[in-house]
Amino acid sequence: MTHTIPALARALSPEGPLDGFWPIEDYAALGDGRCVALLAPDGSVDWLCVPNIDSPPMFDRLLHRPGGFFQIRPVGAYTATRRYREDSNVLETLIETEHGTARLTDSLNSTLAGRLPWTEFARRIEGVSGRMTFIVRFRLGTRCGTVAPWIQETENGSIFHVGSVLAHLVHTENMRLTREEDDAIEAEIVVGEKTRALIALVATENEPLAVPSVEEIDARIETSDSAWRNWANDLHYDGPYREQVRRSALALKLLLYSSSGAIAAAATTSLPERLRDGKNWDYRFAWIRDAAYVANAFLRLGAVAEVKAALAWLVHHLGEEGPLVMYGLSGQRVEDETRYDEVEGYRGVKPVVSGNRASGQHQHGIYGDIFETAALFVSRGNLLDQKTAQLLADLADRCADHWRQKDAGIWELTEDQHYTMSKISCWQALDRACQMAARGHLAKDRAPRWAREKERIMAWIDSECWSEKRQAYLFYPGSDALDASIALAVPFGFDRDKRMRATLHAIRAELGSGPFLYRYSGMQSEEGAFLACSCWMVEALALLGEKEEADALFAEFLARLPRNTGVIAEMIDPQTGMYLGNTPQGLSHLGVVHAACALAGNRMKAFDLS
């Protein structure tokens, strides 16, 4: 069965969307290993943080009108058909008007040796037929109202200052400037058949800026495309839904911060989980959970270098800071939330925030996440150094000591409880620690204690978390609620066959809306359905042998996603089909990878000790 991601044609007017905000699902994403840009259908870059994913935004129209943006569009009404190049994160848009056709190619450039030491956003216009006039609009953002942009004229051209960021526009001679102010410029470009133009933003922070030539930048579009395709060609997956798997892998690669090996949970902040105030978060950090799941997805696809980098990053910062829920992309502690009240928010939904208040929580899930990644890594023939082995052994002891305590759970709730999924994660951690010790990767002297605690955890879950009345494992003992994340217990190897099948049935009945699932009981009125949960359900059903049911659910899930370039956000409104939450969302994309691999019979197990 072939499942493709079709190119999508859109009829557009110069006015843009009626309320000034494009739907979240309409954004394509570009990246260079350090920052990520979001592009609207009308050729506008509405989100770009320079130089890093977690820097303040240079273009922020995603969250504020008028905001900062970088737009290239033709004069008058037009049709735009967008699609990524095959196996690449270079985006092409075919633009058609009554006067002609042109192709716009967008790339956050890199080199074959890796990312550049500056941000280089290249935009190439090629005339295909007729004659067309394009308008270039470039407005600097205020970094959420914290700086006042200004222009400095030099003998080498105009330099843009956005706080500590230094930026410059490099362009071909056929761009004619029509307006210039401290925070904005406008220009025109006319292209005919076989005419080319290039406009590129080069930027850096708190350091001198090298200005490459137009020719160098233009050539690097193809170099970047080649680098993406070479990376994708090394992915090992030939099962069903191949195009969706490869596109999700490419999206996950955008979230890998190459400077450290950290993996961001998403590329944005403050995109709402509901279209009213309250549930807006900053996801531009590295959660232990997300980093581990993404690393596991990369392992399934054979991207070992990324897994090694992620594992090394995890171990290093665990050793320095201890088992935190999340870290900054450079390893720093994440600050509590700062709110920017003067920024209106996406579609007027506040708050706009940086930082994350969950940074001080404890989640038992981090134990299972870390050990799953380490166990899978060594099971593929890779090796641990002594420092890492010692740190993991100490972490297993910590898990054995503390599993009886309450925690904030996988969903980072403000009320600590004995969450069932947290206990399963502790079981998973000690199970993997025992397996690694049996294979000689960890010292064996502490393994008997880990094994005894693992059995105690399983017995506790069976006696305290199972409800005969609900015929399901509950959210936590004493509640009557269900939790969709318990589907993860199946790939984790927590094999309670009849009870798990009954739990999955109860979850789908209570938390389901078509192919989508809400996170836990009561969320139907609070937020959208959490897209990764559907993929976890598909994976669980497939691993339990319900292949036909799992395949039908996954096919319906993919068919109900918005038609776009393949970028997936955090949540969806099942009634309207609109995306909600931050984007691109790592958990959503890795869910697609794991679900498809499970359907292909590619079960990801660290060891088989039977």
TrEMBL record:
Annotated GH15-like domain ranges read: 239-541
Domain of life where this protein originates:
Bacteria
- Gene3D superfamilies assigned to the protein according to its UniProt record, in alphabetical order: 1.50.10.10
Q: Identify a single GO molecular function assigned to this protein.
A: hydrolase activity
Instruction: Say if the entry is tagged with keyword Secreted.
Output: no
Location of the Trehalase-like N-terminal domain: 23-152
Q: Which Pfam families match?
A: Glyco_hydro_15, TREH_N
Q: Keywords on this record? A: Hydrolase
Keyword Kinase (UniProt): no
The name on file for this protein is Glycosyl hydrolase
* The organism of origin for this protein: Asaia siamensis
